[in-house]
Automatic annotation (TrEMBL), chain B:
<keyword id="KW-0460">Magnesium</keyword>
<comment type="similarity">
    <text>Belongs to the [NiFe]/[NiFeSe] hydrogenase large subunit family.</text>
</comment>
<feature type="binding site">
    <location>
        <position position="482"/>
    </location>
    <ligand>
        <name>Mg(2+)</name>
    </ligand>
</feature>
<keyword id="KW-0533">Nickel</keyword>
<feature type="binding site">
    <location>
        <position position="41"/>
    </location>
    <ligand>
        <name>Mg(2+)</name>
    </ligand>
</feature>
<keyword id="KW-0560">Oxidoreductase</keyword>
<dbReference type="GO" id="GO:0016151">
    <property type="term" value="F:nickel cation binding"/>
</dbReference>
<dbReference type="GO" id="GO:0008901">
    <property type="term" value="F:ferredoxin hydrogenase activity"/>
</dbReference>
<feature type="binding site">
    <location>
        <position position="427"/>
    </location>
    <ligand>
        <name>Mg(2+)</name>
    </ligand>
</feature>
<dbReference type="GO" id="GO:0030313">
    <property type="term" value="C:cell envelope"/>
</dbReference>
<dbReference type="InterPro" id="IPR029014">
    <property type="entry name" value="NiFe-Hase_large"/>
</dbReference>
<dbReference type="InterPro" id="IPR018194">
    <property type="entry name" value="Ni-dep_hyd_lsu_Ni_BS"/>
</dbReference>
<feature type="binding site">
    <location>
        <position position="63"/>
    </location>
    <ligand>
        <name>Ni(2+)</name>
    </ligand>
</feature>
<keyword id="KW-0479">Metal-binding</keyword>
<feature type="binding site">
    <location>
        <position position="63"/>
    </location>
    <ligand>
        <name>Fe cation</name>
    </ligand>
</feature>
<feature type="binding site">
    <location>
        <position position="476"/>
    </location>
    <ligand>
        <name>Ni(2+)</name>
    </ligand>
</feature>
<dbReference type="InterPro" id="IPR001501">
    <property type="entry name" value="Ni-dep_hyd_lsu"/>
</dbReference>
Length: 337, 482
């Protein structure tokens, strides 16, 4: 096999997260993770779940990078930056070093060719920043929706790129493997990211695109309880019409999505998703009209269209919308039973 | 005496540091440190109770379904809600998929790569172990990852995605399946069975499940060459290194019971202490005398538990609390589950040599066979067209305990609801039991005791025996400190 270029050295650290992004990643398919790394020419300097090196060997790798003795091409952080208590970072100490992980991450980021925030925690703070955020969790370049985070709004890695935010809770393995591959191929530039520095390859889409419930949505044939087949926007808190991701056109675990699983989209790729201000699976309404309306849609239009389409809902959809499996099939007019 | 700090510990889920005092080529004392605190119990305060189903799975990405199951059970108890049979089956299937995938991930990616370390380069078995189990580069990971990913298609079907599904609810599963999908699930399971039988065991699941004594296991292993299957390969390395002498269990064994259908559990609830005992859930309390939390009392029962960080607390060295059963330490995990279930092979292993590294791994691999076979039955028992879920209102004030078994052991969630909001939420994770620090009596936790006496080869800075012992528990540190 011939290599097109020098291997890219990747280092992966974890802080205030659940490890779920890594676990999702090792489920990569077509091809699997190891084949993907090989295809992209990525050499894993160290990953906490995958590598052999432990303890002192690891600290030596980190120190060599900080001292400039080892090149670091891609730094991935999974999990939020833990700044608490009182900005000391002591809620997460790097084992074996007596130093906050926060400090290591800042030093390593300064040396990295690209810095990749893996998951909503590393991008924005994510679930770890929920509630009163007593642990002072934040992302690498954002603190919720505010710019800043650990590295500050002006941070640029050696490549000149800002932190690349593969937001999602967890990430889809494809979101990350494609991004890494594009970076390795030299095809990942400033035009590849959106306003939250998320790869457009998956945030050009709305979760709503390709949702199997689209026909129910068209006629406002709504699910009333979890497990019903209808559209979950009206009653069950679905944010698919605002959430940016390709979950319904890119299969999860061989062929699922949250919506296919029978529960609403909670917009986990967005900063602040962890504090929706209402119960996740209920739609807040003002005088019967859902508060969070679809992206790009004027409210008056939505209301007018919704009442129109509601009046025209075919019985098939009305019935199926509140059943847990399809009970009424479409009718083929050419064929009489 | 020398002191050694081992960390960062990789190929465990989450962060771990182990402080060792070494004398005479052995570990004399061990302190186990969980160095990360996130505070999920505090995040949940004041939230609508149902939202626990969004937050709780994100405690841990490796056992996110177990967290969902525990949260859903706690809510179900508060609501007085029971699942329809399809709901139980679907939740069992999702849960079992995660638990089996965890066992495989642990064996192939976390545990076995240690035998490919240079320390063992002089051993007769080293070349084969290195070829098969080296981290990232070994042929085993190459075989296992695609098989695991395809097995996880069950998650796409039944749970929408993994990790962090919302399909598991107090009253069942949000995903009803059709007959066509039941057929697909059977096909996925039979493909997975083929991987297990060809690669992991080199024999049928039935044969593995029926091994009933140490002698039979040894006889079975000797039937073919060690490298003919990964299980035999492990057994052979284990014999060479005498892993039965490593990492002895010190306390009693506990299981919350797993996989219920119609009131019957596949693995029952109980305690094993040289024999089967009933488990009194009310005898559980968490001690924080050596954990970095503020406390009025030394030990509190989970419904009254508190989680207020106190990073400068005198004498405290870990974010992990110290759960105790009747004041005693308990080991949890596959070994405990199979002892409490009374599996003859596991009973025999422990009656001969006690709990140890070898027995923990055997119990885990045995469980993969047992659970896969049970899954085949559950898929067949699903009835399309019948309900998968029931609904009920959430009471304004109530309490509930949700007890489940994650791959690595007993997991409990305790919720108290007041004024329609979460007033207290306490979580005790498996690794919190196994990796607990000392308690008010100064009794070290199970791992701390298992490490005492571990051999340290001269010049070792990351003693490989310590690595085997730690990983034999399949720890998950993000759960521990939630
Ligand atoms: S983003 Fe979600 S899945 Fe990823 S580490 Fe954070 S909590 Fe876990
Ligand atoms: S359920 Fe959500 S994503 Fe699907 S059609 Fe309705 S609004 Fe769109």
């Amino acid at each position: 096999m011939h290599r097109r270029r020098e291997p890219l050295r990747l280092l992966w650290l974890q802080s205030g997260g659940c490890g779920g992004c890594t676990l999702s990643l090792i489920g990569a398919e077509g091809p699997d993770l190891i084949a993907t790394f090989e295809a992209a020419g990525i050499e894993v300097l160290w990953h906490p779940s995958l590598s052999e090196a432990s303890g002192r060997e690891v600290i030596e790798i980190l120190q060599r990078i900080v001292d400039g003795e080892e090149t670091l091409d891609i730094l991935c952080l999974e999990g939020a930056v833990m700044r608490g208590p009182n900005g000391t970072g002591r809620f997460h100490m790097m084992s074996g070093t007596d130093r906050p992980v926060m400090d290591w991450v800042a030093e390593l980021a300064a040396k990295a060719g690209h810095v990749v925030a893996v998951g909503s925690c590393a991008a924005f703070g994510g679930i770890t920043a929920a509630g009163a955020n007593e642990v002072e969790a934040c992302g690498l370049a954002y603190d919720g929706q505010r710019e800043g985070g650990l590295l500050g709004p002006d941070f640029r890695s050696r490549s000149g790129m800002p932190v690349i935010n593969i937001a999602g809770c967890p990430i889809h393995p494809g979101w990350l493997t494609e991004t890494l591959h594009s970076i390795a191929a030299g095809r990942f530039g400033a035009t590849e990211i959106d306003e939250w520095e998320r790869p457009l390859s998956y945030t050009m889409h709305l979760v709503h695109h390709g949702c199997a419930r689209n026909e129910f949505y068209e006629f406002k044939a709504s699910a009333e309880e979890l497990c019903d087949m209808g559209c979950m926007m009206e009653n069950l808190g679905c944010k698919g019409t605002q959430a940016r991701a390709d979950c319904n056109t890119r299969a999860w675990n061989g062929g699922g999505s949250c919506l296919d699983g029978g529960y609403p989209c909670i917009n986990c790729t967005a900063p602040g998703f962890e504090e929706p201000g209402h119960s996740f699976t209920r739609t807040p309404k003002v005088s019967g009209i859902p508060v969070g309306l679809p992206t790009d849609m004027p409210k008056a239009w939505f209301v007018a269209l919704a009442s129109l389409s509601k009046a025209a809902t075919p019985p098939r959809l009305k019935e199926n919308a509140v059943a847990d499996h399809l009970t009424r099939s479409p009718v083929d007019r050419q064929k009489k039973r | 005496m020398t002191r050694l700090v081992v960390g960062p510990f990789n190929r465990v889920e989450g962060d771990l540091e182990v402080k060792l005092e070494i004398g005479d080529g052995r570990v004399e004392k061990a302190h186990v440190v969980s160095p990360l605190y996130r505070g999920f119990e505090r995040i949940l305060l004041g939230k609508p109770p149902a939202d626990a189903l969004v937050y709780a799975p994100r405690i841990c990405g490796i056992c996110s379904v177990s967290q969902s199951v525990a949260a859903a059970k706690a809510l179900a108890q508060a609501q007085g809600l029971a699942m329809p049979p399809n709901g139980e089956l679907a939740v069992n299937l999702v849960h079992a998929t995660e638990n089996i995938a965890d066992h495989l991930t642990h064996f192939y990616l976390f545990f076995m790569p240690d035998f490919a370390r240079e320390t063992y380069s002089r051993e007769s078995w080293f070349a084969a172990a290195r070829e098969r189990f080296t981290a990232i580069k070994g042929t085993a990971a190459e075989d296992m990852l695609p098989a695991r990913a395809q097995f996880m298609h069950l998650m796409g079907l039944l749970a929408g995605k993994w990790p962090h599904t919302l399909s598991i609810q107090p009253g069942g599963s949000t995903r009803a399946v059709t007959n066509g999908e039941i057929a697909r699930m059977s096909a996925i399971l039979s493909a997975f069975r083929r991987f297990l039988e060809r690669t992991l065991y080199g024999d049928t699941l039935e044969r593995i499940a029926s091994l009933s004594s140490v002698a039979e296991l040894e006889g079975w292993a000797a039937e073919k060459a060690p490298e003919s299957s990964d299980f035999r390969h492990f057994l052979s390395i284990s014999r060479h290194l005498d892993l039965r002498r490593l990492g002895p269990s010190a306390g009693l064994f506990m299981s919350f019971g797993a996989y219920t259908v119609d009131g019957a559990t596949l693995f029952p609830r109980g305690v094993h202490d040289n024999g089967h005992l009933a488990l009194d859930i009310n005898a559980i309390a968490e001690d924080v005398s050596h954990a970095m939390y503020r406390s009025g009392a030394d030990a509190l029962k989970p419904f009254d538990g508190e989680t207020v960080p106190d990073i400068d607390r005198e004498g405290a060295y870990s974010w992990c609390k110290a759960p105790r059963l009747n004041g005693k330490i308990a080991e949890v995990g596959a070994l405990a589950r199979q002892l409490v279930s009374g599996h003859p092979l596991v009973l025999d292993l422990v009656s001969k040599d006690g709990g140890n590294v070898h027995a923990r791994v055997v119990a885990r691999l045995l469980e993969v066979a047992l659970v896969t076979m049970a899954m085949e039955g559950w898929v067949n028992a699903l009835r399309s067209g019948e309900r998968f879920i029931r609904h009920a209102d959430m009471p304004d004030s109530a309490e509930g305990a949700g007890l489940a078994e994650a791959a690595r052991g007993s997991l409990g969630h305790w919720i108290r609801i007041e004024g329609g909001r979460i007033a207290n939420y306490q979580i005790i994770a498996p690794t919190t039991w196994n990796f607990s620090p000392r308690d008010a009596d100064g009794t070290p936790g199970p791992l701390e005791q298992a490490l005492e006496g571990a051999p340290v080869r001269s010049g070792e800075t990351e003693p490989v025996a310590v690595q085997h012992i730690v990983r034999s528990f399949d720890p998950c540190l993000v759960c521990t400190v939630h």
